[in-house]
């Protein structure tokens, strides 16, 4: 399973910056902020009520606080210190939230979603630590001995207990979505009624695109194209919803010794990069952390098991792109997702 904060990019198919003032209601002003955070870019457009208002510092502060809690790329973050074996750290609300939701998804997916794969992520070369070149089965099996969300717990005092000191957390599979939700909460408190938040392709929307008096809409990237290409297979509308996409067709690592290609989505049950016919999964949910986590989970779960779980999750919809036996692209989508597709 991929626990790294790089996923397939969703491109916002709206004019975020080039809009006609004449199209806007007179009492609505939209502010746009862009930048770099969480190892990727962000683009956020939100409603303000005074030309002087600009929430970029507030946005950057959200990214900073989330990083200090759950970024494995910051050596002094809480998660990095816990991964190193420090036992006296009392987790903050950020860590607690992602931990508890990870536990929920872990249980609902029968362990296919598992943020304790940090050591495997590092070993395969997709984390902050030096990879193990020419990784062999014995080494993978040894790492699996201390992989598993059932091997960790949080005490009443808010401290993490591990069955093995080498258990390593990695919440990157939902950390980006969680940060987006926090930015949305911040904008809500500021009184913004209409916004779209995009970070590395993950998206959260509220209200409408006031510049066009229409719902926000986004495009789903085609997984069958060259890296330099930009083709979309569907466009959907989003209103007060979040969407995240996960895939295994562009992000990979080449072993410098063997020349083997390893995709970045790892299976916590086997310890190996995923090998299946699913190319990408786009998930729509009521918050981005949920969409983010399930998009990753559905890339790892067996195809039929994913469809079964989707039938049980009433607040999660998905669009799955896969290959048939002849290598042709095929799609599956839930009824709720189909209703969002722009015909």
UniProtKB/TrEMBL annotation:
Q: In the UniProt record, which is one GO cellular component term?
A: plasma membrane
**One GO MF term, please?**
transferase activity
Cofactor names from the entry are: Mg(2+); Mn(2+)
Pfam families, A to Z: ApbE
Annotated compartments: Cell inner membrane
Which keywords are on file for this protein?
Answer: Cell inner membrane, Cell membrane, FAD, Flavoprotein, Lipoprotein, Magnesium, Membrane, Metal-binding, Transferase
Q: Which InterPro entries match?
A: ApbE, ApbE-like_sf
Q: Which chemical reaction does it catalyze? A: L-threonyl-[protein] + FAD = FMN-L-threonyl-[protein] + AMP + H(+)
Which PROSITE patterns did the record assign? PROKAR_LIPOPROTEIN
Q: Which SUPFAM superfamilies match?
A: ApbE-like
> Is the keyword Metal-binding assigned to this protein?
yes
Family of the protein in this entry: Belongs to the ApbE family.
Summary of the function given for this chain in its UniProt record: Flavin transferase that catalyzes the transfer of the FMN moiety of FAD and its covalent binding to the hydroxyl group of a threonine residue in a target flavoprotein.
The protein's name = FAD:protein FMN transferase
Q: What is the lineage of its organism?
A: Bacteria, Pseudomonadati, Bacteroidota, Flavobacteriia, Flavobacteriales
């Amino acid at each position: 399973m991929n626990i790294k904060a790089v996923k397939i990019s969703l491109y916002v198919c709206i004019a975020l910056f080039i809009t006609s003032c004449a199209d806007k209601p007179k009492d609505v002003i939209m502010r746009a902020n862009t930048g770099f955070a969480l190892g990727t870019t962000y683009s956020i457009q939100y409603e303000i009520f005074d030309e002087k208002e600009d929430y970029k510092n507030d946005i950057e502060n959200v990214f900073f606080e989330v990083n200090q809690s759950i970024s494995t790329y910051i050596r002094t973050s809480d998660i990095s210190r816990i991964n190193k074996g420090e036992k006296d750290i009392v987790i903050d609300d950020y860590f607690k939230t992602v931990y508890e939701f990870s536990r929920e998804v872990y249980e609902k997916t029968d362990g296919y979603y598992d943020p304790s794969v940090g050591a495997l992520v590092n070993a395969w070369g997709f984390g902050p630590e030096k990879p193990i070149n020419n990784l062999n089965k014995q080494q993978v099996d040894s790492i699996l001995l201390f992989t598993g969300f059932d091997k960790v717990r949080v005490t009443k005092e808010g401290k993490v207990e591990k069955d093995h000191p080498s258990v390593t957390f990695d919440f990157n599979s939902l950390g980006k979505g969680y940060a987006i939700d926090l930015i949305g909460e911040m904008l809500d408190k500021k009184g913004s009624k209409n916004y779209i938040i995009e970070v590395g392709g993950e998206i959260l929307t509220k209200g409408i695109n006031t510049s066009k008096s229409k719902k926000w809409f986004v495009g789903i990237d085609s997984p069958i194209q060259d890296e330099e290409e930009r083709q979309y297979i569907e466009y959907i509308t989003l209103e007060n919803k979040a969407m995240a996409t996960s895939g295994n067709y562009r992000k990979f690592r080449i072993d410098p010794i063997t020349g083997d290609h390893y995709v970045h989505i790892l299976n916590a049950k086997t310890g190996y990069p995923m090998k299946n016919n699913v190319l990408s999964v786009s998930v729509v949910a009521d918050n981005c952390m949920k969409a983010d986590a399930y998009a990753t989970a559905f890339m790892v779960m067996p195809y039929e098991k994913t469809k079964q779980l989707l039938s049980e999750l009433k607040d999660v919809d998905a669009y799955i792109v896969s290959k048939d036996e002849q290598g042709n692209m095929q799609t599956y989508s839930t009824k709720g997702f189909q209703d969002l597709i722009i015909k």
